[in-house]
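User: Please predict structures.

Assistant: First:
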Amino acid sequence: MRYTFDSKVTTATTIKRWLAKQGVSHRLFKKMLANHLLWLDGHRTGNTAIQAGQTVRFAIPTTMTVTPEKASLDVLYEDQNWLIINKPAHLTSVPGPHDPHHSLLNRIVWYLQQQKITEPQPAIITRLDRDTVGLVLAAKHPYAQGRFDQAHHATLKKEYLAVVAGHLSHATGTIEAPIGLGPDGIHRMVTENGQSAITKYQVLKEAVNTLVDVQLLTGRTHQIRVHFASLGHPLIGDSLYGQASPLIDHQALQATHLSFVDPFSEKRIQADLPIPDDFVNLLNQ
């Protein structure tokens, strides 16, 4: 089964220009054209002139780009275009060159295959670090990804929960410190020559350690981890920027809230997670 869509034309133009306004990329359109996956009022067509009132139908070309990995998914929200998934620790968002068959994206491909989708091509919209847990938004097909990137990325809202070592000086704050790649090519660090990075936080609970709600105003690699480590309050369990903990086998960081305006329905979609039990336990350790 392919993903197929109908679009009612409202102005005289060409099929390519009309679909570009709907979020179909030039690359995707070329694949549709090459695979004869365009119809005008029920008849196969190419990039022809169209008039208001006509209907363009198009289908997503099938191309297997990621190896499916048979594994369970914790799906919190699903419709015909989107998935919101609770990602576990120790799992990358997308496959890497050293492990191309094991990632959240590989698992989504297998999941969609079970829905009889032919050679699915999902895309991760909101990536998380390998050992960060929580909510990830995925587009089920390239058309959804294109529509989101075209006009709706600004509607995306994300919040995180983290447990940081010790007590912060202020109950609320904004960390504005540029981040760049460290000399070892692995660590990120606060540096004058880095990219602009801004993190807002609010303390939710204090004990021996502190639970904070975090919002990113920029999206740099390891941003939350680097910023709190730069204050002398690294995330508990973060062996890269602080130190490992016997009480948790990954950094205490969860993507806990995710919402966005669906470009298809124009409705806001939202998912939330509770505070993990192990985060609560870390506050007093």
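Second:
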Amino acid sequence: MNGTTGTDEAVARRLRVVVVTGAGTGIGRATARAFAAQGPELLVVAVGRRAEPLAETAEAAPGRIVPLVADITAPDGPETIVRAAVERFGRLDVLVNNAGIAPHATLGSYRPEGVAALLATNLTAPVLLAQAALPALTESRGVIVNVSTAVGQRGWPSNSAYAASKAAVDSLTRSWAVELAPRGIRVVAVAPGAIATPIADHAGVGPEQRAALRAWQIAHTPLGRIGEAAEVAWAVTQLADPRASFVTGVVLPVDGGAVVS
């Protein structure tokens, strides 16, 4: 006998475990908190490279958001993340590939090391993390949610490599949806537009340049405003919800109408 009660077993059956990468700030933080807010049966492993921001993310739901300092681009990063979730909670139900970088650069200013770092974070890491998570997601009949960008569906002259890396994520989403359907795994994506996050600060964009970018984004967004990270997080949680069980392969723009304008 293992000492578990019928109640314990029922709770275990209801338990859902979510891994969110890039959870220290912005959309990742909002997503981790949105999942945790759904109830005590939903536990979140919040992954990022810096301990302090992750701790701030976890403050919203102590015990239900568990910080995990890890680099998704490290050779052992994907396996470390999946192993940490499964060893602690016994399962993995949802993988949110959110972490990304967006260095501000035009074609004439790209450097090989910059392009390599961008692709390692935005494209290679999600592939390897999804691969590492396959056994656990197959067992749970889980969900992969990729976070791409609306500019991957449009021209983006000030950061073409970033847009291309995220367009590739859209393609992965559709291909994985077909490939993994026989395993019972759904694969979906959200494509945020102009969202109020620190990503421009992380990219080294100055105040004047950032203000000009925001003005351009608002002018090209039919709803006429910048979105909030919580609005993207809502879309992520809805697509990952078991009630969305017949939804797979979709790339959902959360962009105030920018891609259709």
